[in-house]
Design a protein that fits this description.
Elements: H1 5-10, H2 13-33, E1 46-55, E2 60-66, E3 80-86, E4 95-99, E5 110-116, H3 122-129, E6 135-143, E7 154-160, H4 164-175, E8 183-190, H5 199-208, E9 213-219, E10 229-231, H6 236-242, E11 250-255, H7 258-265, H8 278-281, E12 289-291
Parallel strand pairs: 7-8, 7-11, 8-9, 9-10, 11-12
Antiparallel strand pairs: 1-2, 1-6, 2-5, 3-4, 3-6
């Protein structure tokens, strides 16, 4: 049997380079073919590297994490959050917190979170301390609500503060889907004007879908009257101005601070049932309302 030694002996340096170069390409192609296309569709924790951070205002950051492969997608359904696992400095026990990505499910290569840092927030303070190159572990996705295209003629999205993140995920899912004709109405309440998160993105959707998307910014600490901004809070009087005669084809999704949610949905009474909230007085039935 002839030895391969003679073959390699007769090969030029160019041939050797081409040989190993071809092997490298084949290895790379094999590795890429084994990369998960939908990262969070398989069970088990995923540790992702932080690609970049950007401060949005005094207490909120956007954090972009790299998925394993430039063609990989999160694979999250609308509406889903991701449960994060972290070990803040100086703590014995780990901290787990859910965050709703603001990047679309079909976005390749990255998943993006928007995180508000709370004064005593263990997880949020840790995430704000991360620098590009650091990593974060994601345990698993949490399906918050199963959106079905065209199930409703219109939807009201009511958000308070960082509660905008699941509402924004719904908004993107509807308006980026050419087969979904649902009309979207967003009511976004914040403390100050600088707390209006994703403002450029929201106004971009308004320009693209002027007849299908409307929004209202409600600012409790508005210094001076401005076009497109309403001073106050999301209460019954404001909602009566915006919502009129809801029918069975209308859905309400809301997310925000507990006082806002309790006021709109109603506080729990005993083991079953709930007290009357603002949305009930406006004519919405329990099955038309979903709070995150």
């Amino acid at each position: 049997m002839e030895s391969n030694q003679g073959i390699y002996k007769d090969m030029s340096f160019t041939g050797v380079g081409a040989y190993f170069g071809a092997r490298s390409l084949l290895t790379q192609a094999h590795a890429e073919s084994n990369e998960p296309k939908y990262v969070f569709n398989s069970w088990g924790p995923k540790t992702l590297r932080l690609k970049s951070t950007k401060s949005v205002n005094h207490n909120t950051k956007r954090l972009v994490f790299e998925l394993p492969g430039e063609n990989a997608q999160s694979g999250l359904t609308i509406v889903s959050s991701l449960l994060t696992f972290s070990r803040p400095a100086g703590r014995w026990l780990p901290v787990v917190r859910p965050y709703t990505p603001i990047s679309v499910s079909a976005q390749t290569g990255i998943v993006e979170l928007m995180v508000k840092q709370y004064p005593n927030g263990k997880a949020s303070t840790h995430l704000h301390s991360l620098n590009p190159g650091d990593s974060l572990t994601f345990l698993f996705p949490i399906k918050e609500y199963a959106w079905v295209p065209n199930r409703f003629s219109q939807v009201y999205l009511i958000a308070g503060g960082l509660g905008i993140t699941p509402m924004y995920q719904v908004l993107q899912g509807i308006l980026n889907n050419p087969d979904d004709e649902t009309k979207v109405n967003l009511i976004f309440g914040v403390n100050s004007e600088e707390d209006i998160l994703l403002k450029d993105e929201l106004e971009g959707f308004k320009q693209r879908f002027p007849t299908r998307f409307n929004y209202c910014y409600v600012v409790s600490d508005l210094k001076q009257d401005k076009l497109g901004l309403r001073k106050g809070r999301i209460d019954e009087g404001l909602l009566r101005d915006i919502i009129s005669h809801p029918d069975k084809s209308t859905k309400v999704l809301l997310c925000g601070p507990p006082p806002m949610t309790s006021s709109l949905v109603g506080s729990k009474v005993g083991f079953m049932g709930s007290g009357s909230g603002v949305l009930s007085r406006l004519g919405f039935t329990k099955d038309q309302i979903h709070s995150f």
